[in-house]
Amino acid sequence: MEPIFYALPSNWACYFVTGDDSGLTGEEVRAIRAIVRELVATGYSACAVDCEEGEGEFVKYHDACTVYPYAANCLKIYFPAF
User: Fold this and answer.
1) How far does CA 34 lie from the centroid of its chain?
2) pLDDT 10s digit of each residue in the chain, 82 long?
3) How many domains would you assign to the chain?
4) What CA–CA distance (Å, rounded) separates 82 from 79?
5) Which 8-state DSSP code applies to residue 46?
6) Structural domain of residue 20, as residue ranges?
7) Angle at CA 31, nearest 5°, toward 30 and 35?
8) Of the candidates 32, 36, 61, 55, which has an alpha carbon nearest to the alpha carbon of residue 46?
């Protein structure tokens, strides 16, 4: 399987790259954990292998909008298959 990318809030990138959740709200951490469960359930690692550089793009709809329904600056974060 090829790596998959999700467009996610840019301030979440640190969590997916290093596991650091400092600076995130409880709501953001719960949303991230839901995304992690989804990734693992579909055969992907929750540890990102790459991330788009820069500040990202401000969007209303992103790949976490079902668990975090707020507009945000988003980056493409790449996850490898198991």
Assistant:
1) 10
2) 899 999 999 999 999 999 999 999 999 999 999 999 999 999 999 999 999 988 899 999 999 999 999 999 999 999 999 8
3) 1
4) 9
5) S
6) 4-79
7) 115
8) 36
